[in-house]
Amino acid sequence: MAVPNHPQQYINGAWREGGSSAVLENHNPFNQELIQRYQGASAQDLNDAVAAAKTAQKAWQRTTQREKSQKMLALAQVLEHRQADLYDILRAECGSVDLKCGAEFYGTLDHIRMAAHFPYQMDGKIIRSEMAQARNNYIIKKPKGVIGVIAPWNFPFLLAMRSVAPAVATGNAVVLRPSTTTPASAFFIAELFDEAGFPPGVVNVISGLSTEIGDALVTHPDIALISFTGSTEVGRHIGELCGKHLKDVSLELGGNSSLCVLPDADLKQAAKAAIWGSYCHAGQICMAVNRVIVHQDVYAEFVDLAVQAALAVKVGDPADKAVFLGPLTTAQQVQQVEATIAQTIAAGATVALEGKTEGQLMYPWVLSDVSNDMLAAKCELFGPVCSILPASSEQEMLDMANATDYGLSSAVFSGDIYRGMQFAQNIETGMVFVNDQSINEEAHIIFGGEKDSGIGRFNGQWVVDKFTTEQRIGVQEEDRVYF
């Protein structure tokens, strides 16, 4: 299995042992095998990584657009050659089934190839002054400097590279800190940049305890922007620290996606979408379908169809390419999901399909007669549970969809596309999908949420604008009369 076997910190183009006294371990969630044991990063490692990034960035931003673009294309080529290695790592450390491995691999390739265009999107403007004496104002786009990227454990490769690739392509340097639950994916990122020939220090990867390098990374004075993907609770803390230190921040946080089924919808297709969106990567996705809100006129039929679709889902070893539902990534997550299910049933939900637990494998659950005030509908569940809520009218469906603090992604099914679009426009989320489930991401299309789901936007020109700053240079073309 192609899990990195070198020292587990990558700083200034070299691998080295972490300086912390803490020994960290990485385990396979399916069979509990030990994947890695390594020394965590220390505060000194963090300082060294930032210093290396700061030095490297000054030279990197001065390279030509062509050189930056060619390096990104070389990175894509290296990743293509190491596809099997990535799949091995994702299966081993986060229980990814083949479908999810493919989503991370192909999605990241798209992000890298898109980022190869970003050096040519560092455009500016010339604006004539309103002053009587001649002056032109040149607005130029520049890199931020050093960007700190904090990646999550659920999609550890894609959601790290979604920030790392555009940050580097726009002339920044990066210090990447992965979740200690899934560090091998980040170390693999370092290998890819190294193999593609990027200058030392442009990308640095350190993994360590939050108590040693967490807040220190966020508040480091030489880091210009923090790009964080993770829970709303942690994101709020990071946002507070960035605000205190007047530091720019991009936060992609939690979600509580609804999938609304209007009475004219294709129920079979909607049920399949609801199950797919609820169980993809065992529900451990911020955009996962968390609530299926169904009009009462078709509610009973829909529940039956959802149960049928759930029963067709294959559960088991992620190494089996036919498996759709693999293990949850941590034992703690299993316990949390089981507790949420129990509390929701105690509150009055009906068990339409009862799942079971084997180690960290959780079999599909379908809960009906769920209401918005039940725990499974209120929280970001992150487990293979399809919660189905009845509604008496389309207005009630819309009110229920919006009755959440989150606003990342949602979906609506209707037999009339225009009707679906009209409904979608009134859902308070950053993204809505008509006649599809809520998990969708493309490198060239805007991605981001509203409310407690985050601040900022990823992908395309939106991420170029986020990872750069604009400077005004006013040029006086004639002598100005001061007195």
Automatic annotation (TrEMBL):
<protein>
    <submittedName>
        <fullName>Aldehyde dehydrogenase family protein</fullName>
    </submittedName>
</protein>
<comment type="similarity">
    <text>Belongs to the aldehyde dehydrogenase family.</text>
</comment>
<keyword id="KW-0520">NAD</keyword>
<dbReference type="InterPro" id="IPR016160">
    <property type="entry name" value="Ald_DH_CS_CYS"/>
</dbReference>
<dbReference type="Pfam" id="PF00171">
    <property type="entry name" value="Aldedh"/>
</dbReference>
<dbReference type="InterPro" id="IPR016163">
    <property type="entry name" value="Ald_DH_C"/>
</dbReference>
<dbReference type="InterPro" id="IPR016162">
    <property type="entry name" value="Ald_DH_N"/>
</dbReference>
<feature type="domain" description="Aldehyde dehydrogenase">
    <location>
        <begin position="15"/>
        <end position="470"/>
    </location>
</feature>
<dbReference type="InterPro" id="IPR016161">
    <property type="entry name" value="Ald_DH/histidinol_DH"/>
</dbReference>
<keyword id="KW-0560">Oxidoreductase</keyword>
<dbReference type="InterPro" id="IPR015590">
    <property type="entry name" value="Aldehyde_DH_dom"/>
</dbReference>
